Amino acid sequence: MRVTQQHWTRSAGWSNGTAIDAAANLVWVFGGTDQLDTERFAELRSAYPHALLLGCSTAGEIIDTRVEDDTLVATAATFEHTRVRLVSARVDDPGASRPVGADLAAQLAAPDLAHVFVLSDGLHVNGTELAAGLRQSLPASVVVTGGLSGDGARFSRTLVIADAPPAEYMVVAVGFYGDRLRVGHGSLGGWDPFGPDRLITRAVGNVLFELDGQPALTLYKRYLGDHAAGLPASGLLFPLALRGEDGSETGLVRTILAVDEAAGSMTFAGDMPQGCHARLMKANFDRLVDGAIGAAEAAKLSADAQLAILISCVGRKLVLGQRIEEEVEGVRDVLGEQAVLAGFYSYGEISPYTATGRCELHNQTMTITTFAED
Q: Residues 6 or more apart from 21 whose CB is under 8 A from it?
């Protein structure tokens, strides 16, 4: 397996950190919403004529230990012993997320399927239902990782590349086949809960209407104080942790995508199950960085990783601010200098939850997928 990487900026164009490998068979492309256009796609298609291209818009791009904004990062992998296959679908309504996930997974299913990596529209897809659909059509032995595309803190439109020019409302999944590929994964957060648990008394899918019988948006604004004026973007600083109906920890965190003032509701990246409990969370700088390091520890392979795809929540980026590269540097320290690091800041992360091993939608985590070929 060979990995090469290129970086595009508006001022300098493409800068090849390593020579372009025209034999590459898979290229991850992460970039700012306005930078992912048909012209850049055509340039990548020309540079990698034999590769499947997948990618998405971001809230920040990761290249090595740097975090950039409004650039493009193309990371090309040339697998020597692994076959890759790409499938995609359009999701016009969040209610179709589960069947779309199930159909994509069914298309990829095969006896030698080793891993599935998925990227989704970040605003029009219910990530919880997408993950559930992927799970139902795959054996438990096949792990799914990936994330939801971003759009900075604008929440206007998100784009996905599915071996075609970037488009909204898309989900793309890549299957990796063969017994020579090793894949690791890890996902951790680092947020501290505060305030009382609140019962979710009315919710439909990923739209939350009531907590403890009160309008959810009104109650949430009361906690946020002055930060409420900046919703939905300021909601990234105060996610909600979910607990089961029996009060048990679920390990799942949810981030706001939109608010509806008239309905008093909040739309989240994943389901807010009625009957469960929710609790507000706030940032702890050191714990956020420790969470990224912990995710890297979990994703380590028995031998050195050759590539690591990092997907971290935009909320972490907003909180860490100028310290944002500390979490990427922590990952580098764990995985070593030989691993190529690439990734993006997202509206949601898809990875198994450690306690259950099930593929789930996460928010406010650093999720890492590592790859190496024997």
A: 2, 4, 76, 78
Q: How many domains does the chain have?
A: 2
φ, ψ for residue 237, nearest 5 deg: -85, -15
* Domain C-terminal end among 225, 260, 282: 282
39 Cβ contact partners less than 8 Å away, ≥ 6 residues apart: none
How many other C-beta atoms can be found within 10 angstroms of the C-beta atom of residue 1? 17
Each residue's pLDDT expressed in tens, for the chain with a length of 374 residues: 999 999 999 999 998 767 789 899 999 999 999 999 999 999 999 999 999 999 999 999 999 999 999 999 999 999 999 999 999 999 999 999 999 999 999 999 999 999 999 999 999 999 999 999 999 999 989 999 999 999 998 889 999 999 999 999 999 999 999 999 999 999 888 778 888 899 999 999 999 999 999 999 999 999 888 889 999 888 888 889 898 877 677 668 888 889 999 999 999 888 999 999 999 888 777 888 888 999 999 999 877 999 999 999 898 888 888 889 999 999 999 999 999 999 999 999 999 876 557 888 888 889 999 999 99
Q: Which domain, by its residues, includes 22? A: 2-188+286-373
Query: Is residue 13 located within the same domain as residue 106?
Result: yes
Closest C-alpha to 238, from 270, 195, 179: 195
Residue keyed to tokens 């779309």? 100
Residue type, 327: E
Give the pair of three-digit tokens for residue 36. Answer: 């992912």
- Token pair, residue 220, equals 């949430």
6 and 96 part of one domain: yes
pTM, whole model, 2 decimals? 0.86
